[in-house]
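[recover] target loaded
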């Protein structure tokens, strides 16, 4: 019995420690071809009714704070940068997304997300993730067929264009078929009208012109 109690007491602290850990997952690499990027950081912690701070750092030693948001779900969150980056973002109960634009080639580096619980105590932050390498390429080196960061959106656009083109071809073929069928019916109807027998009219009788008979006896007398 005592052994069971000890095992239970040892189990609860382990559960508490696991719950206090914030795990963050990031994409290993993002290639930027349009000078803007969306970096999503998925975390495993319930931040509802808590005051938190989410930030994005640049560099192996996380020396540069790129973008930060601070607050709770009861107020509108404002993303800002104190280091000259153009940033914005959105926050939900599973993911924080940092949106960066007007990036330069020399800003290619590794970026880390950091999630912190500021209140209520105790203070909690995430274990350092593997980070995301953001590779900013020059515009003239980007292929002409380059898609945005989210390839799903690119494929969705291709599918919509393909369906629209197929529908247009289908409508065109249907209209052409109706036009040909209508034209054929008109030609057949015209030929039928020309072949319909008509009632013959009255025939004229040709009469010999009337000439009075001559009285030859009168000439003899």
């Amino acid at each position: 019995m005592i052994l069971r109690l000890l095992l239970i007491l040892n189990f609860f602290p382990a559960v508490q420690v696991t719950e206090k850990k914030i795990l963050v997952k990031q994409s290993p690499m993002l290639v930027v071809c349009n000078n803007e990027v969306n970096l999503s950081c998925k975390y495993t912690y319930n931040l509802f009714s808590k005051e938190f701070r989410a930030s994005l750092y640049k560099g192996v030693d996380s020396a540069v704070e790129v973008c930060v948001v601070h607050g709770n779900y009861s107020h509108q969150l404002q993303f800002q940068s104190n280091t000259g980056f153009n940033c914005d973002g959105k926050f939900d109960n599973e993911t924080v997304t940092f949106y960066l634009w007007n990036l330069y080639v020399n800003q290619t580096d590794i970026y880390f997300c950091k999630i912190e619980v500021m209140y209520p105590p105790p203070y909690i932050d995430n274990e350092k993730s593997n980070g995301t390498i953001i590779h900013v390429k020059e515009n003239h080196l980007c292929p002409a067929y380059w898609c945005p960061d989210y390839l799903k959106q690119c494929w969705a656009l291709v599918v919509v264009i393909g369906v629209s083109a197929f529908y247009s071809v289908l409508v065109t073929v249907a209209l052409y078929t109706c036009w040909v069928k209508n034209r054929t019916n008109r030609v057949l109807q015209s030929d039928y009208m020309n072949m319909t027998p008509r009632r013959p009219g009255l025939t004229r009788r040709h009469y010999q012109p009337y000439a009075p008979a001559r009285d030859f006896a009168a000439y003899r007398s």
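[recover] notes: Residues 1-18 have pLDDT under 50 and may be disordered.
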